[in-house]
């Protein structure tokens, strides 16, 4: 199958059948799904209601060729197996994306993935493993990501062998098993089977670990000057015209919430009124998120989000405005709801695109069986990341230097460090237990070590020198040379 234009679609399905089988079957035994391609061509997919699968499979990714619309049956089988084993939706999507990347690698290098020669150097998995290791060496791919990709492909080959027999690939196995010994947590030496094609990942403390806060990734708090530049951009006329992005970024700065939680907030979450006590200029409203609530959280953990009431009031003004009302109308139209109830209105997403779609799909929505779904992947905030890369980061680099880096998740670290600095004004002892408690509660940390990273985080030598570069440029003084930078770093490290 030619797969140079392979894409992922998604169907809620039972078992796919051919058009001939569909026409020969009784109407009650089959269902037909028709969808439209990007160029306006209407195509149909046929599914059987008689299936060995004992439950409906919702939003299963299916790998298609955009030219022939042919389904890659073997890879789709692997995805169906994952769903039958109740693998998490996000994991199934990751598997699907990994298979698409492997199939495209085979296409680009004229490799037939079904042919596994005797010479291991020519086997598709081995060649793909070497390719991934090249990307690691070039700094393009993280070792852990490469390990996940090759594991997905090996699992796919195992699925084919399990479902079609051990001789599916002929007399030569697609990968090479080997026995390895390891020591378990109790100190016992054990044997395990692994594959030579697996990519080894050595867990080492990175040399630049002091530059980051480990909290769901390597986070770097924006320094005060960088925060000022970001606020200037968010308050500029250009960004104010895209009020959703402005409010999304500001909400992150004011709450430290993850992007997933912010983008799955509902109107109900801000439908509150608070009379501020005498002497209070502001107070925090607690929004609940997680498994038991509307908004999502990492690993569905029940958490509290502290939102300043003044910001709640700003969001309420936005929700009651015509811009949001139009987007919410499109949202319900997309769902086929003409007269939404009060409860449905209150559960609508707080942030919607101009097409009335969410920026990030709630887990609860993905579990709703929708036989007409053809979207290949769940929405996971890609529009926000694109906006940051295209409209915010270039402006920040103009003002802070081309080497400036910034990820949305860094706003969580920024909130935590700002909170720490505010608490230090109340509790002068730098390592006060109350500071730990407050940060741990606001950011919902399970591990105290993560909170310690926030409490102890300080600008490092590299960051201080970057700021000095910026200062010297602003006042017209020659920027430090590389040798001067190295000399300064040595002095900093020596105290």
Please explain how this structure is put together.
The chain is α+β, with helices and mostly antiparallel strands and 495 residues long. It has three domains: 6-195, no CATH class; 223-384, no CATH class; 461-495, no CATH class. It is 45% helix and 13% strand. The strands form five sheets. It has a three-stranded antiparallel beta sheet with strand order 2-4-3. A two-stranded antiparallel sheet has the order 1-5. It has a two-stranded antiparallel sheet with strand order 6-7. A hairpin with a 5-residue loop joins strand 3 (30-36) and strand 4. Residues 1-6, 51-55, 204-210 and 475-482 have low confidence and may be disordered.
How would you concisely characterize the structure shown here?
The protein has 495 residues and is α+β, with helices and mostly antiparallel strands.
